[in-house]
Amino acid sequence: MTRDFYARGVLDVARDLIGCVVRFGSAAGVIVETEAYHDSEPACHAFVGLTPRTRILFGPPGFSYVYRSYGIHALLNAVAEPEGVGAAALIRALQPLDGLDRMRARRGLHRVDQLCSGPGKLTQALGIDLAQNGLDLDSGPLTIEPRPAAWRDPPTIASTRIGITKAIELPWRFSAAGNPHVSRPRPPGWPA
DNA sequence: CATGGGATTGACT
DNA sequence: GTCAATCCCATGC
Question: What pTM was computed for the model?
Answer without folding.
Answer: 0.97
